[in-house]
C-alpha cells in the first residue's frame, strides 16, 4: 500500500489525526490504525485496499481495519455538511409552552448586513438549561412553515432566510443577567464574531485537513414585548442545540488547554493567527466533536470583539501554551514550539499553504460618514473611529461630484493636505492598481484598506 496514506504513530495510545486516545493499531503488520486521509483520497484508497486484498498483499483483518477508517473519514465529512445530524431524535419537548411571535435577526456574511423576519418560538423560562456567572441558557424551539427555519445560517441570494427544511428547529437561547446587560450591541457583536470565525473555518477546511470543522449558526431573538418583562430578557442570542453531555472545551481566551488535548482545535487557533497575517486569533474553541460554538477573537491591537478580546496579551498566552502538532505540520504553519514526535506521517507533507487573507472580504462597504464604521471592522484595519472620521472628512472634501470615488490625483492631493509623507511615483503606481476599469475611481473602502497597509 502506498505509504502516502499511512503514518507510523510511535505513541500507540494517541491518534496522530485527532490527538485522542486510539486503541486502533496493528503492530504485527506495522500499520497505523488511523491513517491521515484527505477526503479526496479516501475513496481511492478504498479501491486500492480491495485490490491489495485480492492480490494477497493484505489479510482480511488488515483490509477490514483500514477500510473502516476510510469509511469513518467519509462519514465524518458528511456529518459536518449538516449540523442538524448531530441529533436524529428530538432532544427535548416543550409541550404545553405557548408560542410567542418574535423577530429573528441574523447577519449575512456576504453582504455584511443584518436581516430579519418574524418567527414563532417556544421558550422554556421555568427550567433553564444552564446558568453561569454572566448568562442563562434556555431551551427553545422555532417553528416555521415551508422550507424556512432557524437551523442553518445560509441566506439565499435574495436575502431571504434559508435555515433548515424541518418545520421545528431545536435551539438554545441565552440572555445576560441584568447586571451584565449592555443592550442589543453586545449580542450583535457575538453573532458577527461567530460569522468571522465561520469564514476562517472555511479557509481552514479549504486546505483539506484530516478533519473539517464547523461553527454553529447564531442569530438574535428580539421579543416583541415590553410591559412587565425586564429589559435584559427582551433580547436573546440563539444557536442550534447540541448535546451538552458531549460538550468539550479545547482552549480558552487566556492560554488554557486541557491535559488531554486534541490536535485539530489547537491547530485551528494557530491557523487563524497565521492566515490573518498576525492580525487576529480565534480561541475559546469548544463544542461537540468538531462543531464549535461561542468562540472568542483576540486582535493584535486589542480593538473590537467584546470584553473577551485580550489583545496581544491573550494571543501571547495561547502561543506560550501551544505545542505544534501533526495538523499544524499538515497546514505548513510556522512552528511556535517544538512539536512532539508524532512519527513519520507521509500525508502531512502534502499540505497546502494557507490561502491569502483578504481584509476586504471581512469588512462591509465603508462609507465616508462620521461614526458610521463598525468597531470590529476597524480593528481589522488597526485603526479607530477618530482616524476613520478624519480620513472620511478628507475623502468627502475631494469627492466633488459626490459619486463616492476619487481619482489617483485627488487621492494624492488628499495625502498632501493631510501632511502624510509619501513618494509620488510609488503612490501613483500603487493607487493605479486600485482603480476599476469601469469607473477609473477609488472607493473610500479601497482607499482606507490601502492607506492602512492591510492589503
Model description:
- The structure is a single chain.
- With 455 residues, the protein is α+β, with helices and mostly antiparallel strands.
- 30% of the residues lie in helices and 18% in strands.
- It is built from 11 helices and 19 strands.
- The chain has helices spanning 39-55, 60-80, 184-206, 263-275, 311-321, 326-330, 375-380, 385-398, 408-417, 424-432, 444-451, and strands spanning 25-26, 31-32, 100-108, 113-123, 130-131, 135-143, 154-155, 161-162, 168-176, 214-215, 218-223, 235-240, 248-249, 280-283, 286-288, 291-292, 296-299, 405-406, 442-443.
- The strands form 6 sheets. Strands 3-4-6-9-12-11 form a 6-stranded antiparallel barrel. A 4-stranded mixed β-sheet has the order 10-16-15-13. Strands 1-2 form a two-stranded antiparallel ribbon.
- The protein is globular, with a radius of gyration of 25 Å.
- The two termini are 45 Å apart.
Amino acid at each position: 500500500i502506498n505509504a502516502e496514506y499511512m503514518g507510523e504513530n510511535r505513541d500507540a495510545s494517541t491518534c496522530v489525526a485527532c490527538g485522542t486516545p486510539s486503541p486502533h493499531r496493528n503492530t504485527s503488520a506495522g500499520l497505523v490504525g488511523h491513517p491521515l486521509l484527505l477526503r479526496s483520497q479516501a475513496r481511492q484508497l478504498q479501491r486500492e485496499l480491495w485490490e491489495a486484498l485480492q492480490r494477497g498483499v493484505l489479510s482480511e483483518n488488515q483490509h477490514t481495519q483500514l477500510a473502516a477508517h476510510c469509511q469513518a473519514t467519509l462519514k465524518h465529512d458528511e456529518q459536518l455538511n449538516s449540523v442538524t445530524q448531530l441529533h436524529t431524535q428530538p432532544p427535548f419537548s416543550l409541550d404545553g409552552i405557548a408560542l410567542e411571535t418574535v423577530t429573528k435577526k441574523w447577519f449575512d456574511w456576504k453582504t455584511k448586513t443584518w436581516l430579519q423576519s418574524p418567527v414563532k418560538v417556544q421558550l422554556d423560562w421555568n427550567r433553564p438549561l444552564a446558568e453561569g456567572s454572566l448568562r442563562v441558557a434556555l431551551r427553545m424551539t422555532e417553528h416555521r412553515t415551508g422550507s424556512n427555519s432557524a437551523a442553518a445560517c445560509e441566506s439565499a441570494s435574495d436575502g431571504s432566510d434559508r435555515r433548515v427544511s424541518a418545520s421545528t428547529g431545536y435551539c438554545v437561547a441565552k440572555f445576560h443577567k441584568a447586571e451584565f446587560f449592555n443592550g442589543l450591541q453586545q449580542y450583535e457583536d457575538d453573532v458577527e464574531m461567530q460569522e468571522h470565525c465561520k469564514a476562517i473555518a472555511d479557509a481552514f477546511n479549504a486546505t483539506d485537513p484530516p478533519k473539517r470543522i464547523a461553527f454553529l449558526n447564531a442569530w438574535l431573538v428580539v421579543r416583541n414585548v415590553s410591559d412587565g418583562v425586564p429589559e435584559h430578557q427582551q433580547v436573546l442570542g440563539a444557536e442550534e442545540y447540541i448535546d451538552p453531555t458531549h460538550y468539550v472545551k479545547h482552549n480558552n481566551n487566556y492560554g488554557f488547554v486541557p491535559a488531554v488535548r486534541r490536535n485539530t482545535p489547537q491547530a485551528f487557533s494557530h491557523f487563524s493567527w497565521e492566515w490573518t497575517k498576525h492580525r487576529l486569533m480565534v480561541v475559546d474553541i469548544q463544542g461537540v466533536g468538531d462543531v464549535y460554538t461561542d468562540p472568542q477573537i483576540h486582535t493584535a491591537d486589542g480593538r473590537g470583539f467584546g470584553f473577551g478580546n485580550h489583545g496581544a496579551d491573550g494571543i501571547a498566552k495561547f502561543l506560550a501554551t501551544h505545542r505544534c502538532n501533526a495538523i499544524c505540520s499538515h497546514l505548513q504553519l510556522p512552528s511556535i514550539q517544538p512539536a512532539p514526535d508524532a512519527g513519520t506521517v507521509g500525508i502531512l507533507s502534502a499540505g497546502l499553504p494557507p490561502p491569502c487573507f483578504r481584509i476586504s472580504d471581512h469588512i462591509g462597504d465603508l462609507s465616508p460618514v462620521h461614526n458610521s464604521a463598525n468597531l470590529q471592522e476597524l480593528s481589522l484595519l488597526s485603526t479607530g473611529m477618530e482616524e476613520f472620521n478624519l480620513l472620511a472628512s478628507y475623502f468627502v472634501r475631494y469627492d466633488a461630484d459626490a459619486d463616492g470615488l476619487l481619482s489617483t490625483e485627488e487621492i494624492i492631493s488628499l495625502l498632501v493636505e493631510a501632511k502624510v509623507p509619501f513618494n509620488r511615483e510609488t503612490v501613483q503606481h500603487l493607487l493605479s492598481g486600485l482603480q476599476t476599469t469601469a469607473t477609473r475611481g477609488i472607493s473610500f473602502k479601497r482607499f482606507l484598506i490601502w492607506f492602512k497597509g492591510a492589503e
